[in-house]
Amino acid sequence: IEDLNHYIEHEKSTRLRKQTRQKRTEIKRYKKKFAAYSERKYKYKTQKAILQDRNSYSKTDHDATFMRMKENHMKNGQLKPGYHLQIATNSQFVLSYDVYQNPTDTRTMIPFLTLIKGTYGHLPEYIVADAGYGSEPNYMAIINEFNRTPLITYGMFIKDKTNKYKSDIFNTHNWEYDEINDEFICPNHKRLGFKRYAYRHDKYGFRRDFKLYECDDCSECPLKN
Asked: For position 186, what pLDDT does the model report?
């Protein structure tokens, strides 16, 4: 831009000066975009450092996370910045408590149990909690890492007991299973044989293992629609 400014000042031809100004305008436009992108990149980097592994934070209190509060006088499910308090009790006595930034119960259980074990040196034999804490990572951690017994229902526990759920023919949990041949039988009486093992990592790094089953031919299935 400086070179073009110098050229415009010393060029006598009006036509050439006009062409040079157009070229300078285009370069200035790119420079402005670059400056905006650079500023935005710095802002995003700062925000990500505050967020860490959360999905939100309050601008007035960076440690607070937006959560859907149960007690809300507006009764419209407002999100408000807050903290997640966990309290462990035994025979109505408070054993321990801690405050977390994450709004979900499932992700607070393992660090909370680790805190209790670090404080007392051991955990109670039975870990009792409601369905909000039921997850595969929590079950595995309580059994394998803490060597304790979880008494925690899973999230679908009540829904699994409904007639609508148990009578749904397209729900794979209701399909007949041939244990000897390791095959499922679909509502069209086709057999789905075991294909392969698979795994998937969630966004927190936990590995979930799966068994995949597949039918040889579903092309002319009357239930396809």
From this structure: 94
Please state the separation of Cα 26 from the chain's center in Å: 43
Task: Give the C-alpha separation, 72 to 66, whole Å.
Answer: 14
Angle at 47 between CA 43 and CA 111, to 5 degrees: 165
Give residues with Cβ within 8 angstroms of 64, minimum separation 6: 57, 58, 81, 82, 83, 101
DSSP 170: T
- Radius of gyration over every alpha carbon of the chain, rounded to an integer in angstroms: 30
Question: How far is it, in rounded angstroms, from Cα 182 to Cα 211?
Answer: 11
Whether the CB-CB separation of 83 and 58 falls below 8 Å is answered with no
> 39-45 contacts: CB < 8 A, separation 24 or more?
none
- Distance in angstroms (rounded) separating the CA atoms of residues 98 and 117: 13
Name every residue whose Cβ is closer than 8 Å to that of residue 140 and which is 6 or more positions away in sequence.
none
Q: What is the pLDDT of residues 117-174, one digit of tens each?
A: 999 999 999 999 999 999 999 999 999 999 999 999 998 888 888 999 989 999 999 9
What is the helix (H) or strand (E) element at residue 99, kind and residue range? strand 93-100
pTM: 0.71
Kindly report the length of the chain.
225
Angstrom distance (rounded) from CA 177 to CA 186: 9
